[in-house]
Design a protein that fits this description.
The protein is mainly α and 223 residues long. The protein contains nine helices and three strands, in the order αβαβααβααααα. 45% of the residues lie in helices and 8% in strands. The two termini are 29 Å apart.
């Protein structure tokens, strides 16, 4: 017999998203209630902004479950809303580091920063009794200021990028990345106030990794 064909990633449909994000969330909170677990960190998503999407809708319902159990069972709950954080080494989603970077380019958060926000939330719950579930966005690190984003490329296409990352413009364009594309970032003031959260991984880190490792990107952390 020849070698087995590679496994193909399962395509998630509305039923899969519902099972994971609604039924799965209910199961976790109900199990926590029955086990008298007092503190819960629930990982939601910034996709709740788009509740008409399949994924966003299930996350909205997941947050409603979290709020309901917090009230019904006096649970201490933090709801984190990270933006997309699929790691670049997940080849079931991204064929290469460049493909991941094309997604990261307009705004995303590294999985390590999300993990840090979770740890900080656990620490917060261990020392603080919240009056109601706390909802906090989780975003990546940006050199761009609010003023940069409000007056994007006023000196011409790519000018804002060039101000911070000029040394990497040729590299970016070589791999089909567009310096003129404007990212979007979330207001993290409340996340910083409550958790002390400061994201570490930025576009500069991604560009340096592209320069060092090429389109394959850095090796995954697990080897």
């Amino acid at each position: 017999m020849g070698p087995s064909p590679p496994l193909q990633p399962l395509r998630k449909d509305v039923y899969a998203f519902w099972d994971l994000n609604v039924t799965g969330t209910f199961n976790v909170f109900e199990a926590a209630a029955q086990a008298n677990v007092a503190n819960v960190v629930y990982l939601s998503s910034t996709s709740v902004r788009n509740r008409e999407s399949v994924y966003g809708h299930t996350k909205v319902l997941g947050e409603e479950i979290a709020r309901t159990y917090a009230g019904r069972h006096a649970m201490n709950v933090v709801i984190l809303r990270p933006r997309g954080f699929i790691p670049h080494w997940n080849r079931a989603v991204y064929a290469s580091f460049v493909e991941w970077l094309q997604w990261f380019w307009r705004g995303a958060v590294h999985i390590d920063d999300v993990a840090e926000a979770v740890v900080q939330s656990i620490d917060l719950l261990a020392r603080t009794r919240l009056a109601a579930p706390l909802v906090l966005p989780v975003d990546g690190a940006y050199k761009y200021t609010d003023d940069d984003l409000a007056h994007w490329d006023v000196q011409g296409p790519g000018s804002t990028f060039r101000r911070y990352y000029g040394a990497y413009e040729d590299l970016a364009r070589r791999y089909g990345l567009a310096p003129e594309d404007q990212p979007f970032k979330y207001d993290l003031s409340e996340t910083r106030r409550w958790l002390g959260y400061t994201p570490c991984y930025s576009l500069m880190d991604a560009l340096r990794e592209l320069e060092r490792f090429g389109p394959a990107g850095p090796p995954p952390p697990y080897g």
